Amino acid sequence: MRRVLSLLLLLCHGAAAERRVEVHADARAPFTAADLADALRVRVAPAGRAIRVDVIAVAGGVQVATARGSRTIELEGRIGAEAARLVALAAVDLVADEAAEPPASSPALVDTVEASAVRATPLTISVLGTGAAWSSVLAGGTIDFALQRGHFVAALELGGGKLTGGELDLTSGIVRLGAGARFSYFELRAGATLAPIFVATGAGDRTVLAGGGASLRARLPITGSARLVLAGGVDAFATHTVYHDRAMTIATPWVMPWLAAGLEVAP
User: Fold this and answer.
1) Where on the phi/psi map is residue 76: left (φ > 0), alpha (ψ -120 to 50), or beta?
2) pTM of whole model > 0.70?
3) Which of the residue ranges 1-5, 68-72, 73-77, 169-173 would you say has the lowest mean pLDDT?
4) Exposure string (b/e) for 234-243, b if CB count within 10 Å is 16 or more?
5) Bridge partners of residue 249, in order along the sequence
6) Who contacts 111 (Cβ-Cβ below 8 Å, separation ≥6)?
7) Where are the domains of the chain?
């Protein structure tokens, strides 16, 4: 009986001493409360007073608040567990009296993390299947290279497609050079567009359509480094070509709306 009582006392003591980490996260935050709680637990002492952290989403990142103060942390487009780890590392001095490491090392550590985040220029690569509206559907694909700095993003998109249906054998390339902004799961771009045209019907033809366009993308997390991309946009061209072959007349579009879907990875 004494052994049973001793075991119960030990269990109760362990339960009482176990650190409680309570996180309240804004629904717009790019990670869950559980993500941040898990990231904090491995960076603070395993036993001690309960920790409460409040997270509010702000432009470009989150604001973290505890009883010791608050801090705004830039996330540079990071989401999920990756973003939670950065927040936990940058905010550990806000619970420094509970931290596993001495508080004196925390400010320098935070400065290093924040400087690293500011200097970071992450590259993302997307492979997308596309469909554009011509006289019929121009079906194809693109590969997209984007560099992000803060909210700003610069991108180069290369690809092409083939005109489906009809009697005109036409293949088009696509080159888009653009810039824009990323906010949380969304990205807005605008820039220049070139579309080299190759026609094999009849005597054939080669030309280049030149213009500009804009697009909106949704970047939905799948894993820490991969996202599902859904995109839509429109290109407008300053040049125009009309093809005649017997009774057939087909013109290149002045305005070309398009849709795309695919996968984005961060190498």
Assistant:
1) left
2) no
3) 1-5
4) ebebeeeeeb
5) 244
6) none
7) 2-119, 123-265
